[in-house]
Amino acid sequence: MPLPIDVVSASASLLDVDTLAVPMFEGDVTVPMAGAGPVVSRRASEAITSREFTAKPGTLFVTPADDEGWRPRRIMLVGLGSRSSYTTDRSRRAATAAALAARDRKQRSLAILLSGASAAVDEVQAVAEGLTLAAYHIGSYKTDPESKPLFLKATIVMPEGTTRDAAEAVRARAGRGSMLGACSNLARALANEPGNALTPAAFADAARDIAHGCGLGIEVLEEEQLTALDMGLMLGVARGSAERPRMVVMRYEPEHARPGVLLGLVGKGVTFDAGGISLKSADGMHKMKGDMSGGAAVVAAMKAIATLKPDVRVTGIVPLVENMPGGRALKPGDVLRSAEGKTVEVLDTDAEGRLILGDALSYARTLGATHLIDVATLTGAIGVALGGSTTGLFGSPDWWTGLVQRTATRAGDRTWLMPLFEDYRDQLRSDIADMTNAGGRPAGAITAAVFLKEFTGGLPWAHLDIGSTAWAEEAQPHQPKGPTGVAVRTLAELALTADEWTADISGTAS
Ligand code: BES
Ligand code: MN
Ligand code: ZN
Fold it and tell me: Considering only CA atoms, which residue is closest to atom 5 of ligand 1?
């Protein structure tokens, strides 16, 4: 549940906390007086001069706060990088880094000052997100109680003399931030669940609990219904596993919804991807328990949306399968017929994500979606292109991908726009069917996206390939190793800022 984050307007010297975090820019030579008394200021200046503390992003400097009359017990300088390269995300990351470091040092309470470099409401939301993200803990199956992380009480400090109205606006955005952070952590927890615990049926049960807890409508389609809907791509992938497939459909329908708009969120839900008959190598295969991270992002974003209540209808769809090489499994060369009638020659059973998403995207359209966005750990190739820091963004038209990118940037999800030139479609040409499901090694992430586009019916559509961003391979100051919760806040922010893409109901937003 969201961390209750206090927002206070007070003199920093009076805060009764273990650690007071003070954001600092590169090149600043003094600590803002709100953040330290004379003794600490001198020590900080020495640390800056000696380059012990550089204020680069992710850097920290901790010193006892033994100035007369100061109640905080430690001061932690937190690097924001250079002023000229500042974005609100720097504040988000600095808050996470500060909270993770405070927890490492067994601190029980942390107060953090604002940098003032963003509008207060925006910075407070980002800091609340960052503080909440630091509460995630990967060791959910450890039995030693010592390994449970300590609870860290977090406070955001507004400048003294903040007006009551401004404080109210800020408090609302802190609440929004902690909810978005908590839902990111929910997605991380789902992604971290092993394949034996989180089967398609178990994922659907978890989604049902989440939906009931926040007033979302939910329907779980079982195999018979998927059969009745002719979802040949879904059913084809499911054949190789003893676990039966599911399709989760979550509905957010506010009373006063803007007319004519339905945002369709679709997330890949492969609860374990062994590759099927085109079996993956054993090396690192365990990581494929996280192949439902896109689905987890959709479920968690739906929860955030149901709680924060934007005035736009949203439907979340998660096709759920396990991709296994059982005796009845899909074979290379098999031809499947999708729900919308297109036929696919399966050249590689490990390219299963695009298959289940094809049927799920069609289904979103039959449910009336007017705008589509899908999130999927779709390819390893996206990591070759962009590495672990940046999500691949694909889609059309340009105004929609542009809007999704700006929204993602605000939410702290880094994306980069990838091309979808028509020629790439040639790589999916099949002799026997409408297309194949695998376009070879060159441009592997792009041909996967081109495959998905076939099922979007020309609607505004964006695809986030989180194949390399759903799981952090290495710890960073702002992010521990493990599931990242990528895309949750982007999806929720899209719904929360529907004004920006529903300029008029004829759909001519530009
Ligand atoms: N789930 C994988 C993609 C993936 C791989 C995500 C590694 C994260 C880390 C996906 O189903 C897959 O196997 N894709 C293949 C496609 C290929 C067979 C055309 C890939 O990327 O190798
Ligand atoms: Mn695969
Ligand atoms: Zn997969």
Answer: 380
